[in-house]
Amino acid sequence: MKKKMAIMTLGLILLVSAASYAGFGLGADVYSRYVWRGTDFGNSVSVQPSLNYTISGLEIGAWASYPITSDLTSLGANENDLYMMYSVGNLGLTVTDYYFPEAGNVFNYTSADAIHFLEGSVSYSLGPVGLLAGYFFSGDEDHSAYAEINYGFYEKEGVSASLMVGAGNGMYVVEDDFNVVNVGLFVSRGAMSVAYIINPDAEANFLVFGYNF
After folding, report:
1. What is the pLDDT of residues 71-115, one digit of tens each?
2. Taking Cα atoms as reference points, which of 102, 38, 112 lies closest to residue 74?
3. Is 5 contained in some domain?
4. CA–CA distance from 166 to each of 34, 37, 78, 200 (Å)?
5. Taking burial as the number of CB atoms within 10 A of a residue's CB, which of 47, 120, 156, 181 is the most buried?
6. Residues of 14-47 as b/e, b for ≥16 C-beta within 10 angstroms?
7. 185-213 pLDDT, tens per residue?
8. Within 10 Å of residue 128's Cβ, how many Cβ atoms?
9. The domain spanning residue 198 has which CATH number?
């Protein structure tokens, strides 16, 4: 009985301890255009709200991007994603459900049409260096992969800057071969940020302004 009570007490302490680190997070960003991994999704100013709940190392959240124009005839599309990320030290493991409402029923995960794209990704940070690798295991018949490295090289008087290079295949490139698709310089000060992005594969470039609320 004493042993069982000790186990129950320990479990209660762990639960209370975990709950003390739990909480909701919310926010929104506004960008002059939505550029993701070197590809323009929107050709419009986009509002990007987010909501998450974190407990210990587990974060569950929702993120979306909505162009403010009604012209969605090109790459522009409403996007409403769900994700779950578990962090251990500098290592992060994430599963993301990319969903585009115009494509169909949110509960339809079996359609051959592109409604839900499921990606597993791994991220790791070591000082100023960050690494990311992602792989689409469902929804994308190409099973596209993406890898990225970024380096924070400047931090002074409230201004920070970083360089980033990303490469992918499948949905990210003009051809199927793995290629560099995302080269960028990111500079931020307070809630404002500006990014200069080049996609060598698509021969495109972008200058994007963002503001976080």
Report:
1. 545 555 789 999 999 999 999 999 999 998 876 677 776 665 667
2. 102
3. no
4. 17, 7, 24, 11
5. 181
6. eeeeeeeeeeeeeeebebbbbbebbbbbbbbebe
7. 999 999 999 999 999 999 999 999 999 98
8. 12
9. 2.40.160.40
